[in-house]
Backbone:
């Protein structure tokens, strides 16, 4: 029987984090212990996007997680090295490959004052599992057959079959605990937040700011150190950097590579590197023409010069990628293997042949939806548009508002191609299972391939690490051949930068800022 206590990392995630550090030469250490921490004070944190719904179980947008991650707690969480450690669970056991038992902290209270118990954990997980709710992380619990509240402080998950990725994928939002009475009162939690985390939502003005205040009943002794912080929304990249220079804000992130270069040259600002874990997805609607035809999907893929996209849009600060970004070692293909994948090299002669075989010898037309919400989305689309035009393929670029894009994506309708990025996941399943399995919650392109399903299901049940790595490499080759999704590049999730008065802040590979609970200000 496997036992884990609060600081016991998941071996899979630990080996992944260490391998990333070694392969990329990146330091992912925790912030050094402060010699004279100061309690109190506030910070102004600036984001580029507002939340699109506040419900941790239902919201799709990454921007929303930047808000609710400070309010909610899960059974387990990631530390600064992206290792799993206990959060609401003080320890957990895996007495068999299909049984997980979590022992909860006692005396933890929701922000509404009620004590949290195992029944709340059971309710929250079952809320995620219920297909009626449409939770984007529902697939995490695909193999869970039963959730039991053994007693007030013990929860047991019973699986129908082994799932090698369960613990890592349920860490964080998939196991965030919410109070049933607040869901009953409001219908959803899209406009309110009531959790057990280090900060409470004190005030929220959509499109402008959200103010968070210290949870005085938080269960980690002495934390948080800050009285609170405010998340302000400033969409313009240059304006965020200017505000940081002036000292009107304390911490922000930069997504525009050109602005990042300016920030790197700014004396007195602090930052820390993280690995390439964010990659652009171009979902092709395989259910309808033209992309129900695999030859035409392959023709689009073979028309692209990925390195030109990287150099033009990202000033070279990105890498060639498969469906798994470079940070996903040891599962990801090597750079040489990736470069040699089918349809990864621009080849217009091959494109002409594929167009003939696909019944479109004179080319074809399709629409491509994206949003200006991230600085790379539209410029990347424009480069792709030019590359396709040279192959006789007309791509009609449609720029839509971020919320509308997510709605199209979530419904899996009203698009031929749709593009936006996804960020770091603790396990390769997070990137590809829900997006390519025929029953995946994020399979917006309606891709259905029995061989892909078989391999995805086999890796999930495979506990042998070497065999599981081999299955993932086979899947990457299959998806390159089938091209249900095109991944032009991978880059860092975010470039965080902050003023020297901000102490003990640790940026994370998944762009989380949960270490604000450890952060303090020296002024």
Residues:
């Amino acid at each position: 029987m496997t036992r884990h206590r609060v600081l016991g990392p998941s071996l899979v995630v630990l080996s992944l984090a260490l391998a990333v550090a070694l392969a990329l030469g990146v330091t992912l250490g925790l912030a050094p212990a402060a010699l004279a921490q100061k309690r109190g004070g506030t910070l102004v944190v600036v984001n580029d996007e507002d939340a699109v719904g506040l419900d941790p179980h239902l919201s799709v947008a990454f921007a929303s997680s930047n808000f609710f991650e400070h309010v909610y707690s899960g059974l387990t969480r990631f530390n600064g090295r992206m290792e799993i450690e206990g959060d609401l669970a003080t320890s957990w056991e895996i007495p068999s490959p299909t049984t997980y038992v979590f022992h909860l902290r006692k005396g933890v209270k929701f922000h509404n004052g009620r004590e949290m118990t195992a029944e709340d954990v059971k309710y929250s997980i079952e809320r995620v599992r219920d297909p009626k709710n449409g939770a984007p992380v529902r697939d995490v619990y695909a193999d869970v057959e039963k959730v039991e509240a053994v007693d007030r402080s013990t929860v047991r998950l019973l699986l129908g079959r082994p799932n090698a990725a369960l613990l890592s994928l349920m860490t964080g939002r998939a196991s965030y605990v919410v109070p049933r009475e607040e869901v009953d009162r409001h219908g959803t939690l899209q406009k309110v937040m009531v959790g057990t985390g280090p900060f409470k939502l004190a005030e929220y003005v959509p499109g402008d700011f959200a103010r968070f205040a210290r949870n005085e009943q938080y269960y980690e002794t002495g934390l948080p150190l800050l009285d609170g912080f405010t998340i302000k929304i400033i969409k313009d990249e240059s304006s965020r950097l200017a505000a940081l220079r002036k000292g009107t804000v304390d911490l922000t992130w930069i997504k525009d590579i050109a602005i990042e270069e300016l920030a790197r040259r700014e004396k007195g600002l602090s930052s820390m590197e993280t690995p390439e874990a964010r990659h652009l997805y171009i979902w092709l609607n395989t259910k309808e023409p033209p992309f129900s035809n695999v030859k035409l999907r392959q023709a689009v893929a073979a028309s692209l010069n990925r390195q030109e996209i990287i150099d033009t849009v990202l000033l070279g600060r990105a890498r060639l990628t498969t469906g798994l970004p470079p940070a996903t070692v040891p599962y990801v293909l090597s750079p040489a293997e990736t470069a040699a994948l089918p349809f990864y090299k621009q080849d217009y002669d091959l494109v002409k042949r594929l167009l003939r075989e696909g019944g479109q010898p004179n080319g074809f037309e399709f629409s491509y939806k994206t949003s200006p919400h991230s600085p790379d989305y539209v410029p990347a689309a424009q480069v792709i548009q030019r590359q396709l035009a040279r192959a006789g393929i007309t791509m009609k670029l449609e720029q839509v508002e971020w919320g509308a894009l997510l709605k199209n994506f979530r419904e899996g309708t009203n698009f031929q191609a749709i593009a936006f990025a996804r960020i770091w996941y603790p396990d390769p399943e997070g990137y590809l299972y829900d997006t390519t399995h025929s029953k995946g919650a994020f399979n917006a392109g309606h891709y259905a391939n029995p061989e892909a399903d078989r391999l995805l299901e086999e890796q999930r049940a495979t506990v042998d690490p070497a065999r599981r790595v081999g299955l993932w490499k086979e899947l990457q080759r299959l998806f390159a051949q089938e091209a249900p999704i095109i991944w032009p590049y991978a880059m860092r999730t975010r470039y965080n930068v902050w003023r020297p008065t901000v102490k003990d802040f640790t940026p994370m590979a998944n762009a989380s800022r949960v270490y604000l609970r450890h952060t303090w200000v020296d002024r």
User: Anything to note?
Assistant: The first strand starts at residue 2 and ends at 5. Confidence is low (pLDDT under 50) at residues 6-34. Residues 465-482 form the longest helix (18 residues).
